[in-house]
Amino acid sequence: MKTQQFVVIGLGRFGSSLALELIDLGYEVLGIDKNEEVVSNMSEYLTHAVVADATDEEVLKSLGIRNFDCGIVAIGDDIQMSILAAILLKDLGVRTVVAKAISILHGRALGKLGVDRVIFPERDMGIRVAHQLVTPNLLDYIELSKEYSIVEMTVPQTLDGKTLSEVNTRAKFGCSIVALHREGKVIVAPTAMDQLHAGDIMVIIGSNSNIDRFESEAVNVN
């Protein structure tokens, strides 16, 4: 099976972290940046890294951009360059185009250009940290929509030894425990008879209000 190929345009903090994680996951990554020093530093880690102007159509064509499965525009400080790079990726036939936005207006513009996914790293991280600060048992938070989320929550002593059937989150709280992390292992789709142990990590999906209710009524019971 052919390994998926990604091109990351902009190798700043966000772009380089994304590119390195994709490499760790076993994918091929071409990194593009105008800064020669940045490219030199990344070249030993990425499949390919080149110094290039991502707003030059002929340059992108020469790099075979149309053959990539996904293009990520990770330019964070130049909205015009970000938009031009996204337009070229779409025009050159990259299957999926993802772009980082630094403002709501920037994100709207990218969306109107047909970018498949617009991401707001700083905003999303701020939201996640805020939820972690106000919910002590919350380890991670992913917003699926304005109403629904997936969260990782530590199993407290109050739920230690209880089975999922006893906790019965779906019937009592309208949310579901879809996985458990325990001692380095992951239990996907745990059964009703699986027991919770203090320190386990529950992966919970549901509406924000139902997850909040579960956290306040079940997790924080004294």
Automatic annotation (TrEMBL):
Superkingdom of origin organism: Bacteria
- From which organism does this entry originate? Paenibacillus chibensis
Residue span(s) of domain RCK N-terminal: 3-119
Q: Name the Gene3D superfamilies on file.
A: NAD(P)-binding Rossmann-like Domain, Regulator of K+ conductance, C-terminal domain
Under what name is this protein listed?
TrkA family potassium uptake protein
Q: Name one Pfam family in it.
A: TrkA_N
What region holds the RCK C-terminal domain?
136-220
